[in-house]
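Standup notes
- DV: blocked on the single-chain target, sequence here:
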Amino acid sequence: MIIRVFAAATLGVALLAAPAAAYPVKGVPELTHNPLYKKGKLPKISCKLSKGTTEASTEKYLRKLVGCLNDAWKPIVDDYQPVSVDIKRKQDDRCTGGTEMVNSYAVVCGTFIRVQLGADWIKAKDDLPVFLQVTAAFGGVVQGQTGIGEAWWALGTDIEEEEKELNRRFDLQQYCLSGAAVKSLGRTARNWKPLLHAEDPEPKDKGFSKFFTHKPTANEVSWFTRGYKAGGPGACNTWTASSAKVA
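- DV (later): unblocked, structure below
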């Protein structure tokens, strides 16, 4: 989900406005009828995580979490290739569309989950918002290894509102996949809404701050909840959903 926001910030595209018309996706079975949607629930993964407040303990936590996510998705994604996590205090901003961030974030970039690790994540005593950011980024791994990412990237349109909607469909699918993975790893919360964007990064250029609101939309919460309740990707076909459900 952060990939889309980074790209939008770079291009200066507003993403929160509802589309003026419906733009159904047709003729792209990799999106609308991907075999991923016929898979069952993710397995229950015993993932005993303990995040301290030192750099070393946080790095250990992040590596363990990514390993657990590999275990969760391997039985679901055909020919799955486990991914590694690359952790640096300062990541190359090519993975964020050239938008330099001043604190921590996780993003899928190439064949890695890349984490820029700052004091905010290191000192965080509640790991759940950090957990959600990494799990969300991992949704991009799943999209990449199932052909969804490539098919989405290949979509072309000259209609600005249609492009926004296509990007939202991609983004909201990551929320749903994230919810399924969170369920697999056994995490719970009374209210997910204040947690979904709690650890969003902050851009160095304050002109981009409007793209990082720390406030999830109703549909972001809805798709995350769908994935969580289903426990698998079968609930995550955003590409055939009505425009209202991906606004």
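- Follow-up: Residues 160-184 form the longest helix (25 residues).
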